[in-house]
Amino acid sequence: MLGKFSFKAYRRTFPLPYQTSGRVWREREGYIVRFDKGDGRFGYGEVAPIPIFGTETLFAARAFLQEFTEDPSIDLPIDLPCCCFGVASSMHSNAAQRRDYPIAGLLPAGHKALELATVKVANGYRTLKWKVGVLNLVDEQAILHDLFNKTPDTVVFRLDPNGSWSEQEFVQWINFLQPFRHRIDFIEQPLPVNKELIMAELVAQSGLDIALDESLNGLEGTRWLCEWKGPLVIKAPLMGDLDSLVERLRPRAKQIVFSSVFETGVGLLNTLQLADALPEMNRAIGFDTSIFLDKLNISIGKPLLAISDRINISPDYIWKQLPDLS
Ligand SMILES: [Mg+2]
Known about the structure:
Blueprint: E1 4-20, E2 23-36, E3 42-47, H1 58-70, H2 81-91, E4 101-102, E5 105-107, H3 112-122, E6 127-131, H4 137-150, E7 156-160, H5 167-177, E8 184-188, H6 196-206, E9 210-211, H7 221-227, E10 232-234, H8 242-249, E11 256-258, H9 265-276, E12 304-305, H10 307-310, H11 315-321
Parallel strand pairs: 5-6, 6-7, 7-8, 8-9, 10-11
Antiparallel strand pairs: 1-2, 2-3, 4-12
The structure holds magnesium ion.
The site of magnesium ion (MG) has 6 residues, from loops.
């Protein structure tokens, strides 16, 4: 591997702490890799580790990037999936046809979802994702009932408890949702990692679609990427080398739901390159996450990410916003 690489670090603060079940996000850190193509143009890739999702640490990523920028002939190690993704993305030249992508609107946990759902629907969103497993089950079911009533029948929901439900709670939800099956796009990772066989059994009984998310993390997740029949939530920047990722995901393209890891505009463009290479992928993508107030993203703020929107995302500009490494 030859060429000249450099990298910079970013650290972003969530304007308000962002709550998912079992976790409050306050800061997001990562690296942007720049590949000098030698003709005045540059390629960019994002390295955005989340160690609790089975990736390398920031420290390990930085140590590798330091070494790699000094000697780009060293191999990309598969145990550093985010580095593999970012470096490979910086060298990738997109030959696939670009497409527009529908975006699923993101609702906050709890009662706040009600107000925002109406706004999102008025803005044209037809798929809404709601984080659950934050309040108690009875309260969340009451809110969801209101959400169904306040939105047209054609709007569908993704429920995401981030693996926090017990089996008993999951069964209670399945029973509750039976009359509303047409309003549910899927339930995302209802049970914790290692409960995949139980989820598969309940899928068969319930007729609801169940997506895997956390179960796909790390090397263990490879099995479910191949074997799971329902939707697959893919956080591309955590999943290794871009080119081999295209080959791994191609047979599963119709099941794929690309999802944000709170990356910058660089990571978004990297993921869209991957999506472009999988023309059968047809589900709304989970990128309604431009919540940061810095200049490392554009705010999309609408239910369709059009080809023309990508022109507004400038990796050169993002790079210039970042300080040199100290
Ligand atoms: Mg999820």
